[in-house]
Structure formats: structure tokens, C-alpha cells
């Protein structure tokens, strides 16, 4: 008779699960409240969501303290992983989510926020992203990926416009394809190494001297395609502009930040051991992805007539820009990735929130789309404060000093030069200059053109609730005064990245 296996509870390190379980519990509580007593005001669910996200943030802070004392910590049969990358990514995920949720306190016509299910799905999505970044187990990464993706498809569709349904279906289709690629890639590496843990996969492949290079190539190709879909890298980007256009503006801004940081972390864990193994063909492929994504998306952004689609292509370009950090693979580059994304979070969420503030329920005859450039013509006369704030966000996205994203671009380009990628650094700088044109184009419309006949100032403040003004104000302050916090923020990030061995 086999004796039972006794596993001490302490050895499971269940505290490593706490940050993920908190939003799950919050989502279940919201659903239970709705079942017991439906029809409650959405402000209750906003407060509950913020409460659980605040508890989640505290749990991540606690995990960061444990990491600083003990280094990398494993838990739950070594499936959970608490290291610097996981902690930094969760700070961004939970922090950006706390900025997004108050936007639900908007005008009642944004009806998706009246559903308790919206907030429950949102919290489930957060938990999925956290599972993705806090493990190196490919099975758990897949579970987190699908949990977050399925919730996000539903959140997009709940916007309840024709383009929203189309966007959700496109995102679901492309997401299912990406999930299939990820599964096949994991299967290949499991067959090669007998493990689904990235660290062990790296050790086994190194011990074998990468003897089965053909199969490694096949597995990497599947993973590259999966991550390229999630990060909207060209040519796997086709879903992104349509999905951003079909989503609410604030949700589009959120999608450009949080899902991508989760995908970046998984890509960093997986590709960096291959990059450091001097596999030349992988370096070449990543180089091509980075350059083409930055350049081609900028070209498409130049010819857009809709500001929201312009920002969508802009977000694709930024993703390609940051993907360069994974190619470079140094501690400085990895620190630059986090610095860039923190600064990008403020600026991009603020930009999309500004679009939301000027949303129109019915388009006037002279407008071809909800956010055409003509709509912003002469905005300095009809809504001067809004025009100035939007201009600040555009200047930051363009990388002009001293605004937030200038420092992210500067440090990332510097890491490319230090890492020996001088030509790549020049291409990055050139693309930043190209991007400046379409950001300045919007500024020209706002400050140098006359308002189009039929527009009035009310359109720009129709949804300017206190919550929206507060979030835009926070984003603007972060964008303008980021230079004050660059050095301490960079030291904080570098300490976590370096101590994680990246």
C-alpha cells in the first residue's frame, strides 16, 4: 500500500497566490451581490473594484518586500514565481487598472458600465494578466492568457455598437489563432525537453548544445507568431486598428498598455535565454520584426484621417520600439522597457481618455468618423484647456523633452547603443522623428485651424465628469513632471531587474 504524500503547507508558499486571488474573490463577490440584489447603482461596483485593486496593489507591495529580502521566491509546487519582472509588471497592471476603473463613473450613455458583469470580467481579466507574468510555467501562462483574453473579448462587445461586435469577433478570431500557436510552441518544447517550465527548458537545451535546432526553430516560430499577435507586431497587427476603433476610447487606451506588458514579460522570459545563446537566426528575425513594426506602422499612421486609428497605429509602433529591448537583452535594455512602459501608460491612457471626453452619440454630416481630425479643428477656441492637455500628450508621445516619453525613448536608444546595436538606435531615432509628424498634425488642427462649421464647444465637455477630469489630470501631471522622478524610478526598476538575473 502506498503511503500518502504529506506536503507541508508552509512549503507551498501560498502567499505567492495572494495578488491573483484578490481580484478573483472581488469578481465573485460582485456577481454574488448582483444575484442577491440586482439593479444597484454602478458606483457600488466601481468602489468595490477599486477596493479590491487597492488590496491587490498592497499584496504586490508585500511581495516586493519578500523579494528584496529573499530574492526570487517559488510557490505552489514551484509553479508560481515571484521575481523582479513579476513584481514590476504587476505594479503596472494593477496601477493602470486603478486609473481606468474610475472612468466608469461617466455619463449614463456608456451603458456597459451599468452591468455588474463588466466589473467582474474586468477583475477576472486582471487576475489572468497577473498569472501570466508571475510564472515561468507555460501551462499557467496559457491559462492566464485565455482567462484575460476571454474576459477582454466580452468587455469589448459590451460597448454595444456595430463596430464593437465586429471588433470583439475579430479579436476573438485572432486571439484563438494566437492561442493555437502558443499551444503548438509549448508542445514542441515539451517534446524536446520534457518540461513546460522556461528555466528548465533553457537548461536542457543548453545541456544538449541545441542539437535539435530544426525543432527549436519550429517551436520558436510558433511562439513568435503568438507573441506577435498579442503585441500587434507587423504583420500580425491587422486586428488592432479595427479593435481599437470598435472599443470605447478608454478601453482602447487600456488595451494598448496592460495586455501588452503581460505579453512583453512572457516574451522576455522565453526569448532572452535564446538570444543569450547566440542563436543568430533568432536575432535576425527579432531585428526584422522590430524594424518593420516601427517603420511600417508609422507610415500607416501618417495617412490616417481618424485620430483614434492614428493612435492605434501609434501604439503598434511603440510596441515595436519596446520590443527592441528584448532583442538587445541587457539589464539596461530590460530596465528601459519597464521605464518606457510606465511613462507610456500615463501618456497613452490620457490621450485615449481625451478622445472619450469628446465622444459623440450622433455624428454630424460633415464628420466621416467619431474622431476625425476635422472634429479637433480650432479646439483651442472651443475648449482651450482640453486642447492644451491633448497637445501635451501628443508632444510626449512624439518624444519631445522634457515630457515623459522623451526619457523612455532616450534610455531605450541609449541601451541599444551600449548593447552594440548602433544601427538599430539610428532607426529608432529616425522613427521617432517620423512619428513626430502625425502627432504635430493633430496639434496643428487644434491650434492653427478654424473650427469646422457645425461644431460647438459643448462637444468637448459632453462627458467631462469629475472622474474623467481627475484621471486626465493625473495622466497630465505624470506626463509633465515625469522628469522629477526619472532617476529614483530607474534605480527602483533596475534593482528589481538586476536581482532577477535579467
Walk me through the structure.
- The chain has 21 helices and 2 strands.
- The chain has a two-stranded antiparallel ribbon with strand order 1-2.
- A hairpin with a 4-residue loop joins strand 1 and strand 2.
- It is globular.
The domain tally reads 1
Report the β-strand fraction as a percent range.
under 5%
- Quaternary structure type: single chain
Low-confidence stretches: 455-461
Helix content: over 70%
What is the structural class? mainly alpha
Supply database-style keywords:
502 residues; mainly alpha; two-stranded antiparallel sheet; 2 strands; globular
Q: What's the SSE blueprint?
A:
Blueprint: H1 9-12, H2 18-36, H3 42-70, E1 73-75, E2 80-82, H4 84-100, H5 116-133, H6 138-157, H7 162-193, H8 198-207, H9 213-230, H10 239-246, H11 249-255, H12 258-275, H13 280-302, H14 307-328, H15 331-357, H16 379-382, H17 384-397, H18 404-418, H19 422-448, H20 466-480, H21 482-499
Antiparallel strand pairs: 1-2
Helix pairs in contact: 2-3, 2-5, 3-4, 3-5, 4-5, 4-12, 4-15, 4-21, 5-6, 5-12, 6-7, 7-8, 7-9, 7-10, 10-11, 10-14, 11-15, 12-14, 13-14, 13-19, 14-15, 14-19, 15-17, 15-18, 15-20, 15-21, 17-19, 17-20, 18-19
Amino acid at each position: 500500500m502506498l503511503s500518502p504524500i504529506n506536503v507541508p503547507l508552509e512549503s507551498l508558499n501560498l502567499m505567492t497566490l495572494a495578488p491573483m486571488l484578490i481580484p478573483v474573490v472581488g469578481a465573485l463577490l460582485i456577481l454574488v451581490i448582483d444575484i442577491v440584489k440586482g439593479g444597484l447603482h454602478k458606483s457600488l461596483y466601481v468602489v468595490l473594484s477599486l477596493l479590491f485593486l487597492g488590496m491587490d496593489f498592497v499584496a504586490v507591495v508585500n511581495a516586493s518586500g519578500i523579494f528584496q529580502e529573499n530574492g526570487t521566491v517559488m510557490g505552489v509546487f514551484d509553479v508560481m514565481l515571484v521575481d523582479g519582472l513579476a513584481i514590476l509588471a504587476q505594479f503596472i497592471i494593477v496601477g493602470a487598472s486603478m486609473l481606468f476603473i474610475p472612468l466608469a463613473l461617466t455619463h449614463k450613455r456608456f451603458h456597459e458600465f451599468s452591468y455588474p458583469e463588466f466589473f467582474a470580467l474586468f477583475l477576472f481579466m486582471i487576475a489572468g494578466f497577473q498569472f501570466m507574468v508571475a510564472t515561468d510555467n507555460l501551462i499557467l501562462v496559457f491559462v492566464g492568457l485565455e482567462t484575460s483574453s476571454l474576459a477582454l473579448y466580452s468587455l469589448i462587445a459590451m460597448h454595444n455598437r456595430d463596430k464593437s461586435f465586429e471588433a470583439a469577433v475579430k479579436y476573438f478570431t485572432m486571439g484563438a489563432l494566437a492561442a493555437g500557436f502558443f499551444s503548438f510552441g509549448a508542445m514542441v518544447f515539451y517534446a524536446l525537453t520534457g518540461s513546460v517550465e522556461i528555466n528548465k527548458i533553457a537548461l536542457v537545451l543548453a545541456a544538449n548544445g541545441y542539437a535539435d535546432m530544426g525543432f527549436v526553430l519550429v517551436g520558436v516560430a510558433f511562439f513568435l507568431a503568438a507573441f506577435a499577435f498579442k503585441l500587434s507586431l507587423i504583420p500580425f497587427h491587422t486586428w488592432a486598428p479595427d479593435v481599437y476603433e470598435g472599443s470605447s476610447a478608454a478601453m482602447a487606451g487600456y488595451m494598448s498598455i496592460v495586455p501588452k506588458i503581460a505579453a512583453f514579460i512572457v516574451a522576455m522570459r522565453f526569448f532572452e535565454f535564446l538570444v543569450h545563446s547566440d542563436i543568430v537566426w533568432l536575432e535576425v528575425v527579432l531585428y526584422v520584426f522590430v524594424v518593420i513594426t516601427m517603420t511600417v506602422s508609422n507610415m500607416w499612421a501618417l495617412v490616417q484621417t481618424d485620430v483614434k486609428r492614428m493612435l492605434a497605429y501609434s501604439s503598434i509602433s511603440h510596441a515595436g520600439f519596446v520590443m527592441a529591448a528584448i532583442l538587445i537583452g541587457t539589464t539596461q535594455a530590460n530596465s528601459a522597457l519597464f521605464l518606457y512602459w510606465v511613462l507610456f501608460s500615463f501618456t497613452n491612457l490620457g490621450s485615449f481618455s481625451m478622445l472619450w471626453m469628446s465622444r459623440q452619440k450622433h455624428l454630424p454630416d460633415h464628420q466621416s468618423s467619431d474622431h476625425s481630425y476635422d472634429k479637433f479643428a480650432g479646439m483651442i477656441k472651443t475648449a482651450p484647456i482640453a486642447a492644451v492637455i491633448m497637445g501635451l500628450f501628443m508632444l510626449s508621445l512624439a518624444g519631445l523633452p522634457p515630457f515623459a516619453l522623451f526619457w523612455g525613448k532616450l534610455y531605450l536608444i541609449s541601451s541599444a547603443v551600449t548593447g552594440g546595436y548602433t544601427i538599430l538606435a539610428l532607426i529608432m531615432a529616425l522613427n521617432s522623428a517620423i512619428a513626430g509628424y502625425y502627432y504635430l498634425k493633430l496639434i496643428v488642427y487644434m491650434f492653427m485651424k478654424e473650427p469646422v462649421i457645425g461644431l460647438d464647444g459643448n462637444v468637448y465637455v459632453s462627458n467631462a465628469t469629475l472622474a474623467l477630469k481627475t484621471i486626465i489630470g493625473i495622466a497630465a501631471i505624470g506626463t509633465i513632471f515625469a522628469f522629477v522622478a526619472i532617476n529614483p524610478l530607474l534605480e527602483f526598476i533596475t534593482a528589481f531587474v538586476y536581482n532577477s538575473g535579467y
